[in-house]
Amino acid sequence: MHAAHAYKVLLRLFLAASLIVIVGCSSDDDEQEPMELEDFDEEIEVVKVWEESVGDGNADQYLKLEPIIIGNTIYAIDHFGVLAAINTADGEELWEAEFDEPVSGALGGDDNQLYFATYHGEIIAVDRSGGMEQWRVALTSEVLSAPVSNGRQVVVQSIDGKVVSLNAQSGEMMWRYDSNTPVLSLRGTASPVITDEFTVTGFANGELVAFQNITGSPVWNAEVGIPKGRTELERLVDIDGQPVIEDDAVYTISYQGKLSVIHLPTGKEIWSKQQSSYTGVDLGFGNVYVSTSEGVVVAYNQTTRSEVWRQENLKFRQLTTPKAFGSTTVVADFEGYVHFLSQIDGRLVGRVHLDSDGIRSPMIISGDMLFIYSNSGDLAAYKIAL
Questions:
Q1: Residue 295 — φ and ψ, nearest 5°?
Q2: Phi then psi for 265, rounded to 5 degrees?
Q3: pLDDT (tens digit per residue) in 336-367
Q4: Residue ranges of the Pyrrolo-quinoline quinone repeat domain (predicted)?
Q5: What is the 3-state secondary structure (H, E, C) of the chain?
Q6: Do 238 and 188 meet the contact criterion of CB atoms below 8 Å apart?
Q7: Per-residue pLDDT tens for 100-111?
Q8: Whose CA is closest to 163, among 196, 187, 198, 132?
Q9: Is residue 96 a contact partner of residue 377, using CB atoms and an 8 Å limit?
C-alpha cells in the first residue's frame, strides 16, 4: 500500500473511533458533558402505534441504517443483513429476508427494487416483493450512506469520495465522479438527492455538486465548507447530511462550515449562515431546522434567514437530523429519547423513550406518523394524539 494512502486510512480509522470526542470539541471538558434532561410540562400526547424488532440494528457500529417508505410499506435492514417489509399502518410484517452480508449503508429504493450497501463495497439490488437478489456491483470502497434511485438509475457515494450512477435494471455503471478527498474526514458520507434532471450531493471537502443524471457531467459546484486552520481537525468541513430540495432551492449544511441555500438551476448561493452540523437539515413552518454539532436545535426563517429560535437544553446529546412533524420539530438522542419541540418557539412540548442503546438513524415522516429505527433494531411508529 502506498505510504500516503496508508496514512489516510489510519487517520480515518482513528477518527471513526473518536468521532464523539471530536464533534463539538471544546477546551472545557465540562462543556462537553451531555446535558441532563429536565422535567417540563408536556403539552402534547405522543402515542406509540406499533413497535417491531428488525434484527440487531447497527450492532454497536457507527452506522445510520435509515429505513425507507414506499407506498404503504416501510423497509428496514440491520447490520447483519436482516431485511424486513412492514405495513406502515399496523406494523404487520409482510416478509423477511436474510443476507449473509455486513450491511453498512441502507436503505434506498424505487417502485421495483430496494438497494443497500455492504462493508465490502458492494451495492445489492433486491426486488420489493420478497427480497430476492437481482444484481450486485462492487465499488471501489465502503459505503456508509443510502443509495438513491429515480427508477432509472441508482446513485451512491462511497467513503473515498466517489459518486457512481448505476443502471437500476442491470447494475451496469452509467458514470462515475471522483471528488478531491481530504486527508481527514468524519465517519460518514452524504446520501445524494435525485430529481428528474439532477443528482445533488455533498462531499467531505465541503463541496456541494450537481450532476446531470444522464451523463454525470457536473452542472455546478458550490462551497459550503471552506477548510480553515492549521491542523487537520480544524480543517474538517464534511457534508454528511442529505441535501433537501424545495422548489428551486437546495438546503445543506457542513461541519465547521455553514448552512447554505443554493439555487438549483445555477448553483448560486441564495443565502448562508455560519453554522456547524454533522447531520442534515429539514424544512417546515417556513423555517429551516438544524441540529448543530454541539446539540443545539436552531430554526432559521427560510426567506429572511434570520434566527427564529434556538433550543439549548439538549446540548451534547448527539442529536439526529431534526424533522418537521405536525406542529413540532422532532430530534432523537444517544440515550434513545425522542424530543418534540414547538415549531413556533422551540420549547419542549413532548418526549418519549424508545431504546436505551440510542437512536442515530434519521427519522422518517409519512402522513401523520413518525417512524424511528433505533440502534438496537427497534422499529416504532408514533402519532400525536389530537
A1: 90, 20
A2: -65, -30
A3: 999 999 999 999 999 999 999 999 999 999 99
A4: 81-311
A5: CCHHHHHHHHHHHHHHHCHHHHCCCCCCHHHHCCCCCCCCCCCCCEEEEEEEECCCCCCCCCCCCCCEEECCEEEEECCCCEEEEEECCCCCEEEEEECCCCEEEEEEECCCEEEEEECCCEEEEEECCCCCEEEEEECCCCCCCCCEECCCEEEEECCCCEEEEEECCCCCEEEEEECCCCCCCCCCCCCCEECCCEEEEECCCCEEEEEECCCCCEEEEEECCCCCCCCCCCCCCCCCCCCEEECCEEEEECCCEEEEEEECCCCCEEEEEEECCCCCEEEECCEEEEECCCCCEEEEECCCCCEEEEECCCCCCCCCCCEEECCEEEEECCCCEEEEEECCCCCEEEEEECCCCCCCCCCEEECCEEEEECCCCEEEEEEECC
A6: yes
A7: 889 999 899 999
A8: 198
A9: no
d(C-alpha 250, C-alpha 211), whole Å: 13
- Give me the pLDDT at residue 228, please: 75
Helix H or strand E encompassing 9: helix 3-17
Q: What predicted TM-score, i.e. pTM, was given to this entire model?
A: 0.90
What's the CA gap between 211 and 153, in Å, rounded? Answer: 13
Look over the chain and give the mean of its residue pLDDT values, rounded to a whole number: 89
> Cα–Cα distance between 373 and 65 in angstroms, integer?
8
DSSP type of residue 29 = G
Amino acid identity, position 110: D
How far is Cα 245 from Cα 247, in angstroms, rounded to an integer? 7
Q: How far apart are CA 373 and CA 363, in angstroms?
A: 7
Decide: 125 and 147 in contact? Cβ < 8 Å: no
Do 269 and 222 contact (CB within 8 A), yes or no?
Answer: yes
Q: Is residue 182 helix, strand or coil?
A: coil
| Residue 48: all three cell numbers together | 406509540
What are 138's strand-pairing partners? 122
